[in-house]
Every structure is written in structure tokens, then in C-alpha cells.
Amino acid sequence: MNNYLLAFLIILPVLVFLVMIKWIKRKLFFHPHREMTCYPSEYNLEYKDIWISVGNERVHSWFIPSKFYKHSESKEKFIIFSHGNTGNISYRMFYVLLFHYLGYSSIFYDYRGYGMSDGTPSETNMKQDIRAVYDYLTKTKGVDPKNITIYGESIGTYPTVWLASRKDVECNVILHAGFSSIKNLFPYGLRWMVTEFNSEKYMKNNHNKTLIIHSEHDELIPYEHSQKMFELCPSKHKHHHSTHGFHAFPQLCRKYVNIIIKIIGKPYQPVQNMKTIYKYVEENS
């Protein structure tokens, strides 16, 4: 057997193994759904489909203005929502309605590969996607960054904290049910295979006003992850809010509502009275 054939027989299984690992990780990290299950208009909400270019591809988003947007545009509070790894933005109507009731304008966007967005999901694409949405608000629409809150849910906390760590980004940050690093969710002997989604290294450079929310009973991402992220955050204005319930179905309450208002800032005018909003949160979360 010549040396070239021997080298090929040694290298081939390694290459196959690496390709398989990459494929398995993609299946573990991302569970995108293309089909939209509902639209804001079904809840009598005004909204616009916004398409944002990222290279040669486009990210689809919903822009949902507050009821009083035309009267408060210069002082309007905006939320950029980055969802978890399953479904698409149409699965997040609880938050769409909550932010509307509170009187905030919001942008719900799908990562590439999700919903109506082009392309395929990846760690790099997620970072590019949230940056494109942020730039759309600040550069295209001229929104003051101080009036923007970036809200990340589950795996969506990763691009959120990455954006928050950029030196040219100044906004409020909410991290909901996030991880410190995905490798810390794997058994110790397998962690060497996972280098993606390391939120810890970015949190160390996040000096923005930050709220971390996590259920003490989260069955998917242990509560300790949020505690570690809170300790790593160098911001002088950071808060930690503990909830109950499961990862995908946290039990939220009026304290949750009050603390996100504290982080985002008071809206121009809520659509519903606070008693009704508290009831909505407690009955639907």
C-alpha cells in the first residue's frame, strides 16, 4: 500500500466524522419552521412586513408600531426581539401582544432559514441578522439607540449579548432564559466538540443596562447559567429576575411586567390599563 492511499484511508474517516458532527450540531441548535401560523392582523394589530438585506439575502421582520407611534415618534421606545431556536416569529404572539399592550413599538425578525427569511441559520448569520435589524432602526429610521431595547429569548440571547458587546452599540438589554455557553449544556466529555455560541466572552464587554430573566425550574437551560452571566456582566445597571415554570413556558407575573418597564422605559401611553396587562401575563404565560 503506497503512502498516498494510506494517508487517504486515515484522513477520510476523520473528515466524515467532522462532517457528521457539524450536521448533528446544526440539527441540535436549530429547529426552524417556514410556515407562518398567524399574523398580527388577526389580532387587529397594525403592522408592516419589513425586508432587510444582509449580503445577497434578506431577513424578514414584522414592524409593529405602538398605537400612539405618530404622536410620540421622536421619543418612541422600540424593542428588537430575537426568538428561540424553534418555530419562527409567528410563534411569539404572546410577546407581540404584550409589547403592544404596554405601548411599545417592536420589531420581530426571523433569522435566516426561519419563517420567510432567506438562507440557512448559523451562528455567524444570527449575528449578522441582528446587526442588520439594529442598523435598520438606527441608520435607516434614525431611531436614537437609547430608545432601543434588544430582547433575546433562549438561543436568541446569544446574538443579543453579542450585539450588546459591540463598542458602537448603546441600548437596553434583556436576556430571557439564556445560556452562558452552549458547551456547558453538554456532558463534560463532549464539550470539546462544541465551540459555538459562547455568550460568556461577549457578556464581559456588555456595559449596557441589562436585565437577566430565568426560571429557577428551567428544565432545558439550568438557572445557574443566568447567575454566571449576571456575575460576568460589568454593567453598573444590571438586574436579575427569577421566575418559575418551564423553559418554553415561564410563569410570569406583574413583577416581570414592572421590571421590563423599568429597563425599557415608560411608554408614551399604554394601550391597556396595568390591571388588564397583569391579568393577560398571568393567564397566558
UniProtKB/TrEMBL annotation:
The keyword Transmembrane helix applies. The keyword Ion transport does not apply. Signal peptide: none annotated. Gene3D superfamilies: alpha/beta hydrolase. Residues 125-239 form the Peptidase S9 prolyl oligopeptidase catalytic domain. InterPro entries: AB_hydrolase_fold (IPR029058), Peptidase_S9_cat (IPR001375). Keywords: Membrane, Transmembrane, Transmembrane helix. GO terms for molecular function: serine-type peptidase activity. GO terms for biological process: proteolysis. The chain crosses the membrane at residues 6-24. Coiled coil: none annotated. This is Peptidase S9 prolyl oligopeptidase catalytic domain-containing protein. It comes from viral metagenome. The lineage of its organism: unclassified sequences, metagenomes, organismal metagenomes.
